[in-house]
Specification:
about 300 residues, alpha/beta, D-Maltodextrin-Binding Protein, domain 2, 6-stranded mixed β-sheet, 3-stranded antiparallel β-sheet, 11 strands
């Protein structure tokens, strides 16, 4: 009898977990961060990257993938209850140009066009150049990575910062475009695996109502991120089906430079703080407090 009750209890637990899994929602900006969760496409809602702050304040999603600094700023200001559960991307930025034999050193004394003025992406790019002793003649900004990508396609003399996987799409369309990974330069300078760019956030109400299920959801998202190393062909098909990329060939060629790697906050916290220290203004003036992190065993 006890054995039967134990079996029934296990069955009910599995059923309840499956039901919860079917109902959870992840909001994510389209682009490289969305590649992290393309295995969970039925549970993912893609949003315009420019509106991701509204996802935090609406509090409709159980999970949000977003720039870590954006989530930290809103949390510190009391405008968000979402806590950081993992870092999922470690930098997908590149410098790009059609100048022959392009290298980062060519930025010295040349105009550089960035995207995302007053964002951590721009701060990291400028930090890397400063640490390398490279001083652009001038720095200007366009609104998005798509606009800087368009600039390098149209202007043979331009040097821009853009992002993967869009940069690979541009290179496949125009063989004259060369890129230098900002993350690779950052790694050379700091010895880290990249900078803490996008994170996975979990809503406070989800933790309160379904705390026992959150660990399972986090494992599902980790497994989705890990597929890019284990089964990239299937992952690429899902990315195209979701509308993240138009062609599987592009994402398969770009994926190694997209910086996708799921790291839980207990392991990633130090690198989050190192990234924040590059420009504390992007994090509300100081490194995030311990209450910003969700470690998973509470």
């Amino acid at each position: 009898m006890k054995k039967l009750i134990a079996v029934l209890f296990a069955f009910l637990l599995v059923c309840s977990f499956a039901g919860a899994e079917d109902s959870f929602l992840v909001e994510c900006p389209n682009g490289a961060p969305a590649l992290t969760v393309c295995a969970l496409k039925d549970n993912v809602q893609l949003v315009d990257p420019a509106t991701i702050a509204a996802s935090f304040t609406r509090e409709e999603a159980d999970f949000i993938i977003a720039p870590i600094n954006a989530g930290a700023k809103l949390f510190k200001a009391g405008k968000s209850t979402y806590r950081l559960a993992a870092v999922v991307t470690w930098g997908n930025l590149v410098f790009a140009s059609r100048i022959p034999d392009f290298s980062a050193e060519m930025i010295n004394g040349h105009e550089l066009i960035l995207f995302g003025e007053n964002t951590i992406n721009a701060s990291v790019a400028l930090y890397v150049l400063q640490e390398m002793g490279i001083t652009p003649a001038a720095v200007s900004y366009l609104a998005s990575a798509q606009e800087t990508q368009r600039k390098v396609v149209e202007d043979a003399d331009a040097i821009v910062m853009t992002a993967e996987p869009a940069a690979t799409a541009a290179k496949m369309a125009n063989a004259d475009i060369s890129t230098v990974s900002v993350s690779a330069l950052f790694m050379q300078l700091t010895g880290s695996e990249g900078f803490a760019q996008a994170g996975l956030f979990v809503r406070a109400r989800t933790l309160e109502d379904s705390r026992e299920m959150v660990a399972g959801w986090l494992q599902e998202i980790k497994a989705s991120a890990d597929r890019w190393a284990e089964d990239p062909d299937t992952a690429a098909k899902d990315a195209v089906e979701m509308g993240i990329m138009a062609k599987e060939a592009i994402v398969l060629k770009a994926i190694s430079n997209c910086g996708i790697h799921y790291v839980p906050t207990r392991e990633a916290k130090e690198l989050v703080e190192k990234t924040a220290a590059i420009d504390l203004g992007q994090y509300g003036g100081s490194v995030p407090g311990d209450d910003f992190y969700y470690y998973g065993e509470e």
